[in-house]
Design brief:
- There is one protein chain.
- The chain contains 1 helix and 13 strands.
- It is mainly β.
- It has a single domain, classed as lipopolysaccharide transport protein A fold (Sandwich), CATH 2.60.450.10.
- The longest helix has 14 residues.
- It is globular and about 55 Å long.
- The protein starts with a strand and ends in a 13-residue tail after the last strand.
Length: 211
């Protein structure tokens, strides 16, 4: 399946090798026969092929809208290995189902999308909210669009209506409705009449904690 951009709300600035070559020729003409003292052209791999700011765009897969991206800065590095999109000033994602209903909302301070692998890497203050209103917090999250799986090996905090669940290591479907905490630590209940903290071993019997 091939991802495609449906709409971009701001014109895109593209950095090309052609521009760099023209600037180099112009500079040489102005300085006469003076020999260069170092490399005049920056390595193309380190330059973005696309740069756009304050963008909101819809992404489709096989003609079906899958998610919406909102970000202050979007850079595309097509020559890096692996090639990637980078969102170094934060990103907000909305994941849609076939009826265009939002299945999950995801925010992160930094994100990378490896287009060839169809893999998202979200870092720092990663926040997720699913259709049930559950909230997930972690510092690192991977989302594989081919397998439709989400996972992390970092600390995870899940806020449900009546309790908060914590642990290390996390696996989920991309709707964040069926998930597993690999190393659970405890449950903190909102209702004061219940236990304040449940033993970690008891998490194996809780719904949506271990599949």
């Amino acid at each position: 399946m091939q991802l495609s951009l449906v709409r971009i709300h701001k014109p895109i600035c593209i950095t090309t090798v052609f521009v760099a070559v023209v600037m180099l020729v112009f500079s040489s003409a102005c300085t006469g026969n003076k020999k260069p003292t170092g490399d005049a052209v920056t390595n193309r791999d380190s330059l973005p092929a696309l740069e756009t700011r304050d963008v909101t765009t819809l992404i489709s897969d096989s003609g079906v809208i899958r998610y919406r991206i909102t970000t202050p800065l979007w850079l595309v590095f097509d020559k890096l290995n692996p090639s990637r999109w980078t969102f170094e000033e934060g990103v907000y994602l909305e994941n849609f189902d076939e009826n265009n209903d939002v299945m999950a909302e995801i925010k992160a301070d930094t994100a990378y999308y490896y287009d060839k692998k169809k893999l998202w890497e979200l870092r720092s203050h990663v926040e997720i909210k699913n259709q049930q209103g559950e909230k997930f917090n972690t510092e690192l999250l991977f989302w594989n669009q081919d397998t439709q799986k989400v996972y992390s090996d970092k600390f995870i905090r899940i806020e449900q209506i009546d309790r908060t669940i914590t642990g290390h290591g996390f696996e989920s479907n991309q709707q964040f409705t069926v998930y597993t905490i690999r190393k659970p630590e405890g449950i903190f209940y909102v209702d004061e009449d219940k236990m304040a903290v449940a033993p970690a071993d008891s998490l194996n019997n809780e719904n949506n904690v271990n599949d």
